[in-house]
Amino acid sequence: MYTKGDYIHHVTNGLCRVEDVTTIEIDGVDKDRLYYRLWPVGSHGSTVFSPVEKAREKTRYAMTREEAETLIADMPSIKTLWITEERARERQYKDALFSMSCRDWVKIIKTLYLRKQDRQARGQKITAMDEQYLRKTEDRLYEELSFALGKKKEDMESYIIEQIEGKEKRCTSED
Cα separations (Å) of 48 from 10, 20, 40, 44, 57? Predict the structure, then answer.
């Protein structure tokens, strides 16, 4: 059970701080049912109520600094998703986005980055669906990484590139 002040990832609301564990005083709602009152970090001013008994399937603790650093170090070896059929690809993107797995998010981002490069090389634009999933997934991943690493969200893409290129240079110079 989470406690007040914990930071968690909620499947639909992203990074949240647990504000309280409480009941809800609304007609028709079980007065004994416990809810987490969540404050989504990226949506100032909003509050979300999430049932405590559903927490296992809808939430997880936010990434730690160590987990974030490990994820960034592992990014070059994380495989992409490559499905040619449009509906199956969208289903795979959606499943990965809502899996709450940062590794799955990296798969989506890498896949869409490569698709974007391939399409641009052929004089085509990225599809609206791909653009939408790329933005959503980057937003989720960068929000969580920035929190774990204590950096600005808008700096995450360049920070990740810097870390990966720096690692590659260190590995090359050691050979």
Answer: 10, 11, 7, 11, 16
CATH code that applies to domain 7-61: 2.40.10
User: Which residue from 152, 156, 143 is spatially nearest to 7, judged by alpha carbons?
Assistant: 143
* Distance from C-alpha of 109 to C-alpha of 79, rounded to nearest angstrom: 11
Per-residue pLDDT tens, the chain, 175 aa: give them. Answer: 899 999 999 998 999 999 999 998 887 777 889 999 999 998 777 899 999 998 888 999 999 999 999 999 999 999 998 777 888 888 999 999 888 899 999 999 999 999 999 999 999 999 999 999 999 999 999 999 999 999 999 999 999 999 888 765 555 445 4
- Domain 65-174 class? mainly alpha
Q: Give the Cα separation of 12 and 48 in Å (integer).
A: 10
Global pTM reads 0.86
Tokens 């653009």 sit at which residue?
131
105 neighbors 139 (Cβ within 8 angstroms):
no
The neighbouring-strand residues paired with 61 are 8
CA 175 from centroid of its chain's CA atoms? 35
Report domain extents, the chain. Answer: 7-61, 65-174
